[in-house]
Amino acid sequence: MRDSGRRQDEQQRTFIDALQKNSSDMGERLDRASQVIGTVQKSIGEFSEIGRSIKDLQDYISSPKLRGNMGEHILGETLKQMLPSDLFVLQYPFPNGEIVDALIRLQEDSIPIDAKFPMANFKQMHHTTVEKEKKDFEKLFIRDVIKHIGDIARKYIRTDQGTIDYAIMYVPSEAVFYEAIMQDAIQEAAREKRVVMVSPSTFHAFLRAVLMSLQGVRIQKEAKEILAIIHSSKQEYEKISDSLSTLDKHLSNAYNQLQQVNKFFVQLGQRLTRAQSISIETEKETKKIA
């Protein structure tokens, strides 16, 4: 009986120890879980703050003036990366007070570039899920772009002040650019007003074409300078050739004169020799007679 009681006590103590250990482990796990939940809640709070900040930034960017400034900034950075600084001017003022966002300088002409683009109705067109509203915003977007094309042509195409007879409209978004060029009315207005629409990718291609054109002009100019040097050298060569020909004639005449003088000199020497010989013979004969 005593052995049986001891075994029961031992089993009871073992069971109690196990319960206490499990209770301790459970407490530690709950503590860790509480810490994890606290960290998650903190992260959720941070994400919520980031979300509010992003919304505030979107609302801030929605300002048309700010979008224009961003477009101008992107345009300026692109020009700085692609062209030498002496080939473009940012915020160029025309004599009448109009200021174009950028002006590319060519050899004799210049290309005006506008970077302000009407985006408000494009955003509304893509945000709405109502089909009728989408169509209405699309019409307003087309109207805005056509009006902007007319403003660019009126303000910046000034051939009497050194610009070429077209202007560039820089669209700082590929999505907006492709939406615009898919509209026949916008395309027709751009052709009529001589305004070329470019996106960031097509603008890079346009600038590369400008660079190649300028390099071609530079090579042509250098080739003309080389031809002018060759032509001038040819004229100098002809002058030197004429001088050498005249000198050769003079040298030939001098040589002939030298030969003639030498011939006369030899003949004179021969005559003097004969005269001397005759004088000696006469003297001998005189002595004999005496």
Automatic annotation (TrEMBL):
Keywords noted in UniProt: Coiled coil, DNA recombination
UniProt similarity note: Belongs to the RmuC family.
Keyword S-adenosyl-L-methionine: no
Domain of life: Bacteria
Protein name: DNA recombination protein RmuC
InterPro entries the UniProt entry points to: DNA_recombination_RmuC
Presence of keyword Protein biosynthesis: no
Biological processes annotated in GO: DNA recombination
